[in-house]
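Course assignment 3, question 2. Fill in each field.
Student: A.L.
Task: Predict the tertiary structure for the chain below.
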Amino acid sequence: MRVQLLGLLRMHGPATATQLALRLNLNTGVTSYHLRQLDAAGFVAEDRERGNGRERWWRAAHQETRMDCSAMIERDPEATDAYLRSVAATDTLLIQRAVNGFPTMPRAWQDVADFSDFRLRLTPDEAAALRTELREVVGRYRKDTPGQAPGAPADAEPVTLVSYLLPDPAGRPEADGERDEDEGAHPGGES
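Answer field:
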């Protein structure tokens, strides 16, 4: 829920607990509690320029979150596990929503949607280089933030890019070192 709240504030800008509760179909009290927890952790902040004495507005404290998961696992493995699972669950919801809407998307968006995965065999150094390159490529594009979205061309729409660069525990090298070249390919996608 906290990952979703933070995502809504980043995507749509400042909001009240009531507004966020309506979007997530939640109780305002529960939403307020989670916003206070996010505030205590430094992810959101009260937007004191909005509202009045009765209305408390919240904003994302930053537009991105990057975590050093290995350091987090050493400090608090249970919290890290819960956080990573909630991020994966939130991303799964985004993907499911897009798939559900795929049949009614304009053809131009159907043509550019991508459901590929790429099976690679990398060293940790190569994976780090790939991660850096992907971030550089994504950084060249306009973010869907309240600050950048208003300047977008009229035909620009919000796009979600979900990228995971994860070692596959089930994909450890076989004893003979051979792999099937087509393994992991999706019909119509790339391997």
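Instructor remarks: The mean pLDDT is 84. DSSP finds seven helices and three strands in the chain.
Grade: pending
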